[in-house]
Amino acid sequence: MVPTRAYRRVRRAHVRTYRFSGGRIDMHLYRRTAVTVLLLFVPLSSNGQDVPFLESPEWIVEAMLELAEVTERDVVYDLGSGDGRIVIAAAATYQARGVGIELEPQLVEQSNDNASKIGVADRVRFVEGDIFESDFSEATVVTLYLYPKVNRRLRPLLEKQLAPGTRVVSHKYEIGGWPSTKRIKLGGRDIFLYVVPPGGF
Fold first, then answer.
1. Is the residue at 185 inside a domain?
2. Above 70 in pLDDT, residue 186?
3. Which CATH number characterizes residue 68's domain?
4. Own/partner pairs for 12-16, CB < 8 Å, 24+ apart?
5. Domain containing residue 106
6. Is the Cβ–Cβ distance between 77 and 125 less than 8 Å?
7. Is 111 within the bounds of a domain?
8. What is the pLDDT of residues 31-90, one digit of tens each?
9. Inside any domain, residue 190
10. Are strands 75-79 and 97-102 parallel, antiparallel or unpaired?
11. Distance between the two ends of the chain, CA-based, in angstroms?
12. What is the number of structural domains in the chain?
């Protein structure tokens, strides 16, 4: 089922749900599975570059997408997409298209299941792959929650692939060497916005 502008968000006990004509889906369904434990280590690439799967809280996801000014015209790529929450939220809230790249097959499967339950499977896809060997050149928005050393290593690929005007939003950690367009702090957490300038960085 594809959500339309007729859907509405409701908050009860600080838990977001999406209401469709077919029923209600709890956006916090992710937390019911063992794969979202914060200490689970998930490889982003096959060359030994491991980082923990750090889930972005719902309110951070909302803020990242708002900071990027996502619309239905955007293609949102989440690099190291985990359980798919950012891509799914972009599709459900803004009707954007989205792609998540994730090396862990269990999380890719979970992401696809979550997208189907929310009703946005026709607008998103999740790819099992190494972010350092992936093509994300069609992205108009890129979201990141990666450690600084991973951001630094990823930066040349972002510079090579992303077109001018592409927005890159990073939760908590800067992309070293890039001047941020905007920086906000929410609940003690930083979110950085970068916009690829004409001619690149």
1. yes
2. yes
3. 3.40.50.150
4. 16/58
5. 36-195
6. no
7. yes
8. 333 332 222 334 444 444 445 567 899 999 999 999 999 999 999 999 999 999 999 999
9. yes
10. parallel
11. 41
12. 1
